[in-house]
Amino acid sequence: MGSGCPRPYHSSAQLGKRLISDFVSYSHDSEGGLYVCMNTFLGFGREHIERHYRKTGQCVYLHLKRHVIEKVPGASGGALPKRRNAKLFLDLETNGDLNSDDFEYEDEAKLVIFPDHYEISLPNIEELPALVTIACDALLSAKSPYRKQDPDSWEEELQASKHAKTLVQLDNGVRIPPSGWKCSKCDLRENLWLNLTDGSVLCGKWFFDGSGGNGHAVEHYKETGYPLAVKLGTITPDGADVYSFDEEEPVLDPHIAKHLAHFGIDMLQMQVTENGLRDNDIKPRVSEWEVIQEAGVKLKPMYGPGYTGMKNLGNSCYLNAVMQAIFSIPEFQRAYVGNLPRIFDYSPLDPTQDFNTQMAKLGHGLLSGHYSKPPMKSELIEQVMKEEHKPQHNGISPRMFKAFISKGHPEFSSNRQQDAQEFFLHLINLVERNPIGSENPSDVFRFLVEERTQCCQSRKVRYTERVDYIMQLPVAMEAATNKDELIAYELKRREAEAARRPLPELVRAKIPFSACLQAFSEPNNVEDFWSSALQAKSAGVKTSRFASFPEYLVVQIKKFTFGLDWIPKKLDVSIDMPDFLDISHLRARGLQPGEEELPDIAPPIIIPDDPKALDIDEPSVMQLAEMGFPLEACRKAVYYTGNLGAEVAFNWIIAHMEEPDFAEPLVIPAFGEVSSSGAAVFGAVGLDNQPPEEMVAIIISMGFQRNLAIQALKATNNNLERALEWIFSHPELEEESEPALDMMNMENNANANILAETGSEGPRIKDGSGRYELFGFISHMGTSTMSGHYVCHLKKEGRWVIYNDLRVCASERPPKDLGYIYFYHRIPS
Question: What pLDDT shows up at residue 482?
Fold first, then answer.
């Protein structure tokens, strides 16, 4: 064929299989092939193609279909290699049963004209117009948009290193202890790599998670040529993170168990129970990775509706765990899966960019049972004999969902590990902004918090209410019931580190749940409290109570904190979380007899002449960061609200958390310049004659409506002090103002326009009893939210089930004491 002719369609169709796995807009499979609209280039499964044709009138589709056939015995060619090129075939998600030398693929491409289903086989260069041929060829050769969006997100499927099979290991007697490692060339104890040739432990620099180091591991390679290293702290029975200096990329080491055993590391010790050893011959397993994943116990796989796993796309386990918990709740099931036909019918022309469509698609994938079927080898053999194959689906891939829900978010759109609690709140925010009916499913989590603030000097009080979705419980370390054991363990650990001996068996702090609940109910000091009674700063305390109890109570254990070096750290503790919880005693009571309220006077606003001269109140920053917000966002919030305290800065965060640069580092502009958030710094005029957003946020934080704040600032030429005076001199305007800003979020959202009713007045709550029963929890393994792994345990049909990405099994030992986020449902009165 001449160089000017298009490529043959058979080879193009093989490339086109990349579309099959992640272009399907309404479902997670392409059984019956994939239909790609030649106008929008959106992909649809067979069961949804008629809906798209009826809705849009588009009649030309490219139909891609794959046939799996059995090889002729002894055949040496003609089969598609398992992975001819990893960069080309990463999107292909074929069934594991077919990833062998016994089968080959044959791909078919056709043009289909609706409504008559007229088919034109490809290639058909002679009969089709040149533009149509070019369009088909370009479509089949296109790379997945989700790979283009974040190319680093799809490097999870690694190649085996060329050095793995022939790796030479020196017999130098080196033995690696299970912990207490340190770089042999510096004092670093983080981001350490074990060279698999000579056993050197050295620090990295720019591998995987981007953590810091002095690059001694790569320097050692340049000096010695020893090619493979494994990251210490990532070794589990399932594998480890291995890097090849020679190949300059993360790799697989099929012989990793043997290579680690050379240095005394037994990565397979958790499987000895299946090899015939008695349980009492095995040391008790105490590490988080072992206990939370229930390693060493043979778990029975679960199949059917509600027992569908989710593929880890590369540090997406936080998303998988949260979505499994969300779609175990009946209100979310009804809202999205129960309304699925209607949502799909009213979805916009591009359903990949519609939140409700993607939620319905994901929910259906998890709950339908279509993607969680037990293997049936007899059926597989019969299908192969007929030269047909019905894929045996095992879990779903949430690529399209993750791409949409994280779009524009600086953290969730990356391939880094994230905080499951932050993602839960991000998801709830999106649910709130995309209403699907008269009732919002996120209302089941919503509750009102009554905050009582008291001036310690005047003894006067102020009561305020706010909406929340999570109960955050502090870890009462001082209440540990095994303090003597902890002290003895710490002494042994330090001695072992000094002598470079294996560390003693871990002793975990045991914290009573009652102590954490008590710590939650106790008063907390208010930083930089300004007393309106004294007209000055004073000591103040705040207590929180439930003004209403939610239908579903989400409890977060505040395990993550910051060290003196500002590095996030995790408290490895065991808390005896109850199966049944009664928090009725935390019901708010309001203003009590004998209490006197603080005067309703706003603190004076101090606007610096030079914004750069403004110091940032670090205690307020840390207080916000401990709530789970990104550190840089907290610094910006405190700066842009003039160091008025964590409470005012918290309101700024709520108003700005959806902005693209929310978590970007603080850049202090010169006086009068426009800040990165699109508003001017104090005193400068905003864009399009709009008041600076920071000034608006300050006025809103004082309890005034947003539209009233904007009106006051415009009336006073953006003078903050005069704007406050203007508001107080126009009380009638405050009474007339109505919160109608939620309607702005409904623009360009077809589902919201068609399905949603007008918003109700006031906060939506489902108050009731304060008695709850545990039905799920999300656990985290690792040292901080920036690394590690999440799994989810849910109680279904009377028994606990573990959801560990694609693996869904009956739980034998649910680690309820090691959870991070707990889900309780209200017990009917």
Answer: 94
Distance (Å, whole) CA 69 – CA 102? 9
The residue ranges of DSSP E strands in 2-45, in sequence order, are 34-37, 43-44
Which residues, 6 or more positions from 718, have their beta carbon under 8 angstroms from its beta carbon? 683, 684, 685, 686, 691, 692, 695
Single-letter code of the amino acid located at 469: Y
Q: Give residues with Cβ within 8 angstroms of 484, minimum separation 6.
A: none
CA dihedral 639, 640, 641, 644 (to 10 degrees): 10
Is 789 a known active-site residue?
Answer: yes
Q: Is 455 noted as a catalytic residue in this protein? A: no
When pLDDT is averaged across residues 540-560 and rounded to a whole number, the result is 94
Distance CA 633, CA 654 (A): 11
Q: What is the mean pLDDT of the chain?
A: 76
Cis link prior to 692 (omega < 30° from 0)? no
Is 792 annotated in a binding site? The answer is: no
Indicate the pLDDT class of residue 10, thresholds 50, 70 and 90.
very low
Cα distance between residue 148 and residue 190, in whole Å: 32
Q: At what angle do helices 631-640 and 618-625 cross, to 10 degrees?
A: 130
Q: Categorize the per-residue pLDDT at 680 as very low, low, confident or very high, splitting at 50, 70 and 90.
A: very low
Task: Please count the other Cβ atoms lying within 10 Å of the Cβ belonging to residue 561.
Answer: 15
Which of the following is catalytic: 317, 516, 634, 809?
317
Residue position matching structure tokens 């370390």: 477
Q: Which residues pair with 545 in a beta bridge?
A: 450
DSSP β-ladder status, 771-781 and 580-582: antiparallel
Q: Which residues of 265-275 are buried (b: 16+ CB within 10 A; e: fewer)?
A: bebeebeeeee
Residue 178, token pair as written in the block: 């299970």
For 168, 618, 685, 710, the CA distances from 713, given in Å and listed in that order, are 73, 29, 10, 5
Q: Which residues contact 107 (CB under 8 A, 6 or more apart)?
A: 10, 13, 14, 16, 17, 64, 65, 66, 67
What does the alpha-carbon distance between residue 274 and residue 269 come to, in Å, rounded to a whole number?
10
Stretch (H or E) spanning 473: strand 471-473
Predicted confidence (pLDDT) per residue in 696-725, tens digit: 777 776 767 777 888 888 777 677 777 777
**Tens of pLDDT along 300-329?**
999 999 999 999 988 899 999 999 999 999
Q: Residues with Cβ < 8 Å from 489, sequence gap 6 or more?
A: 504, 506, 507
Report the alpha-carbon angle 304-306-310, nearest 5: 95
CB 35 within 8 Å of CB 27: no
**Edge-to-edge strand order for the sheet containing 60-70?**
43-44, 34-37, 60-70, 103-113, 118-121
136 is in an annotated binding site: no
Check the annotation: does 203 bind a ligand. yes
Longest dimension (CA), the chain: 95
Sign of CA pseudo-dihedral 94, 96, 99, 104: negative
Marked catalytic residue, from 48, 163, 789, 825: 789
pLDDT of the residue at 118: 85
In this predicted structure, the answer to whether residue 220 has a pLDDT above a threshold of 90 is: yes
183 is annotated as contributing to ligand binding: yes
Question: Would you give the end-to-end CA distance of the chain in angstroms?
Answer: 78
pLDDT-derived band at 103 (thresholds 50, 70, 90) equals low
What is the token pair recorded at 667? 């850049």
The Cα 324–Cα 772 span in angstroms is: 20
Kind and range of the H or E element at 517? Answer: helix 513-521
Contact between 303 and 372 under an 8 Å Cβ cutoff? The reply is yes
Average pLDDT over residues 648-675: 68
**Residue 729 in tokens:** 């001199």
Residue (of 22, 102, 555) closest to 313 by Cα position: 22
Min mean pLDDT across 85-94, 615-624, 816-825 is at 85-94
User: Rg of the chain's alpha carbons, rounded to an integer?
Assistant: 30
